[in-house]
Amino acid sequence: MIFRHPSRLDPATGKQGRRVRRGLGTSVDEEADALVDQLNQILQNEGLWESQARSKAIALYDQRIVDVFYDGLEATRTDFRGLREEFLPLPTLADGYPHVLLLGTTGAGKTTAVRQLLGTDPGTERFPSTSTAKTTVADTEIIPTEDGPYQAAVTFASRDEVIDHLTDNVSSAALAIFQGKSNSEALRRLLDHVNQRFRFSYTLGRPTLTSDDDDMPDDEDETDEDATALEADELAAIDSDATAAMLITAVAELRRLVAEQKQGALADLQPQAGDDERVIEELLEEVLDSSLRQLEEFHTIVDNMLHEIELRFALLTEGELRRTRQGWPLTWTLSTEDRGAFLKSVTWLSSNYAPLFGRLLTPLVNGIRVGGPFTSSWADAPQRMVLIDLEGLGHTPKSASTLSTDLAKRLDEVDAILLVDNATAPMQAAPAAALKSIAVSGNTSKLSFLFTHFDRMRADNLPSFADREEHVRASAENMLSSIGEELGTTAERGIRRRLERRCYFVGGMHKPLRPVSNSARRTISQLEALTRQLAEGEESVPLGPAKPVFDRMDLALAVTKAASTYRARWRGLLGLESNSKEHWTRIKALSRRLGEWGWDEYDTLKPVAELRNELQVQIMWLLERPVRWEGEPPTGEQRDAIVEEISSAITSKIYALTEKRIKTDVQSAWLDAYCQQGKGSTFIRAEIIDSDVLERGAPIPTATPSRDGNGLLHAMSALVDQVIEEQDLFRWNGHRS
Q1: What is the rounded distance in angstroms from the CA atom of residue 511 to the CA atom of residue 428?
Q2: Which of 206-210, 415-419, 519-523, 596-600 has the weakest average pLDDT?
Q3: Quick one: what percent of the chain has pLDDT higher than 90?
Q4: Count of beta carbons in the 10 Å neighbourhood of residue 588
Q5: Which fold has domain 402-539?
């Protein structure tokens, strides 16, 4: 059943009339006809088009039709962590299970460290999956237990989210064709989303194009093809040849559609002599994209890909697959005493194993939680801690400069943070950016370091383990100096202290560890010390009676600096200043996610998180310079602990403030920006975001009294006053309790 929904936004036109495709849940023609007739009655009755009319519709029509029509009418975000919690609750610190968050760049060895802590065999069990490419794209939570069954609770991305990403991929493939790219490049874009979060090649495979097959990427882990033994009849459930033919046909169809629509797009645009060629090219791309998305043939490609994806869920023969009322998979759960069967089932949902490409459901998973008697080969008992492994940090300053809101909140929630880094090239852009976020959020005291690939540090000037350790610590000096310059000496001292006290070095982690060599024995010793420290935690520093006193004027200066830096960066990204302009497709995708989906970021574009980060950085500088101290002067560690406590208290409230000002209160402006179409829409969209989102949400304070113009300053002032009232950690100059 396919219809245009009269009350849902159509991504192609920015107007009402979203294309909806749903199964009817019956194989009886007469019943199907009756259901379609009921839907047509709803479509003809405008009084039933709003979400409030659902109860009325339930009394008149089949529940299946009501569910199809009203699904998605209200922007809601499913609590996926809550769904996993229903089946497999996470034990807490009170139960003797500290929550440990692992951070690190892609390829640093973070997931390999998890394997060692679990004791899973890298050759025969391959869980969790590792490779040199981006591996962890879903939240992974693991609970080693002393006994009991092996359990898993998995949650999936929503149908609409998958459809929208497939639509983006089809559009990107069409754009590649328009730009004169090869069929292989078009096919790559058709399968793998630009941010690598949705790599549908895992699920649909990578057909070989005989003309230019060498262009296809081959960056996954392809070792030991017999490592994951799967039954032939299970693999035969999917017709890979039919899927490959569908994808190759899709590229050919897109090439035909682009050729047909290109002339119409040129006629609509009517470029004039002297027009900027780059701007004309961008406008032409947008007009072409809009026209393609309105074609039924375009959406048929999306439908065919979605259908093939849905077929792959039949591979989940074990456990319980729970679906939404519209039939889309919501959760999958399993409980069994059989370790082999458990890991075999989980493979379909977590692996990036190249021989299984075309069948894996990994890209559709947004969270996986497992528990069971996993024990390290070098330990006598399971490590009593919850291991939380999230998506790897970016490699570049651009991708790593600001942590997402979800990840930043996790820093506050967990009991310990383990930064995993490569000892052969330590403290590059991403780890440094993560450390700054940890410092400004008041979480430095949770931090430990694990440097991997220690066995690969081979040089004549590094003959001993001690020499290598000293080399890694020395490599961190530039990073520490940078943090000191950007955030102040308090942040630098805190991280330096953790490097001195909570730093571990390991090598040979890609294989089972056995104490047969000095290197292996040393790695085992380091892991034992690390896990013991993580389990025991660290005694907090007594804060004492001292309280810092700050000048309220410094808060105004801090907010002004944060807003100015933030606005300048975003005006550049929007193309209103400098040369750092983002491509129009990314700005449009961002505006849609905030305006329609209620998200707060797209890939590296994080307007909510970036304002939060700028405010945190400037608050850190404010805390660095108190006017004086009241009470008994604090020791150095007490002073740093007090600053961290204040920073943590303020950060916990900044999340809500920035989300309200940059997302919730201006959601209609984001949607308005997204809905812009046609010639000049790129510039108009940028202007709307700048004036109706950023100017309203993050105005730069001025000397002229203005509630709106100084709204951010007033909000931050009220927030800080609330922290003083609730926790009595510091004072404003001239005010005494």
Answers
A1: 26
A2: 206-210
A3: 48
A4: 23
A5: Rossmann fold (3.40.50)
Q: Which two tokens stand for residue 316?
A: 């989940």
Mean pLDDT value of segment 166-194 = 90
Would you kindly state where each structural domain of the chain is located, as residue ranges?
2-70, 159-315, 402-539, 547-732
Q: Which of 612, 653, 681, 18 is nearest to 284 (CA)?
A: 681
| pLDDT tens-digit map of 94-124 | 999 999 999 988 778 888 888 888 888 877 7
DSSP state of 633: P
> If you search the block for the tokens 């950007």, which residue do you land on?
486
What does the mean pLDDT of the chain come to?
Answer: 85
Mean pLDDT for 593-621 is 92
In the numeric block, the tokens 């989906």 are attached to 597
pTM: 0.86
What CA–CA distance (Å, rounded) separates 402 from 519? 36
Residue 221: what pLDDT? 44
Peptide bond into 128 cis (omega under 30): yes
Nearest to 50 by CA among 63, 69, 24, 77: 69
| C-alpha–C-alpha distance, residues 159 and 154, integer Å | 15
With beta carbons less than 8 A apart as the criterion, state whether 485 and 632 touch.
no
Return the SS3 of 156: strand
Helix (H, G, I), strand (E, B), or coil: what is residue 518? helix
Per the CB < 8 A criterion, the answer to whether 9 and 16 are in contact is yes
Other Cβ atoms less than 10 A from the Cβ of 650: the count is 26
Q: How is residue 110 written in tokens? A: 């973070």
Residue with tokens 């909000």: 715
441: DSSP letter: T
Question: How many whole angstroms separate alpha carbon 101 and alpha carbon 116?
Answer: 16
Model confidence at 736: pLDDT above 70: no
Check the CA dihedral 538-408-127-132 and report its sign: negative
> C-alpha distances in angstroms, 346 versus 126, 248, 343, 510, 688?
10, 30, 5, 20, 46
Residue written as token pair 């600053």: 643
Tokens 């591996």, located at residue: 135
Rounded-to-integer distance, Cα 440 and Cα 491, Å: 8
Q: What is the pLDDT of residue 471?
A: 83
pLDDT at 260: 86
Is 688 within 8 Å of 673 (Cβ atoms)? Answer: yes
**Tokens in use for 633?**
């002067």
Question: Positive or negative CA dihedral for 69, 75, 80, 82?
Answer: negative
- In our burial notation (b when 16+ CB lie closer than 10 A, e otherwise), range 683-699 reads bebbebbbebbbbbbbb
> 727-731 — which CB contacts under 8 Å span 24+ positions?
727/645, 727/649, 728/547, 729/547, 729/642, 729/645, 729/646, 729/649, 730/547, 730/548, 730/549, 730/550, 730/626, 730/642, 730/646, 731/547, 731/548, 731/549, 731/550, 731/630
- Residues 478, 331: Cα–Cα separation, whole Å: 46
61 pLDDT more than 90: yes
**pLDDT 10s digits, 276-322:** 556 666 767 777 888 888 889 999 999 999 999 999 998 898 999 99
Q: Does 145 have pLDDT greater than 60?
A: yes
Closest Cα to residue 342, out of 151, 577, 519? 151
Nearest to 377 by CA among 536, 561, 508, 473: 508
Residue 425, number of CB atoms within 10 A of its CB: 11
- SS3 letters for 239-276? CHHHHHHHHHHHHHHHHHHHHHHHHHHHHHHCCCCCCC
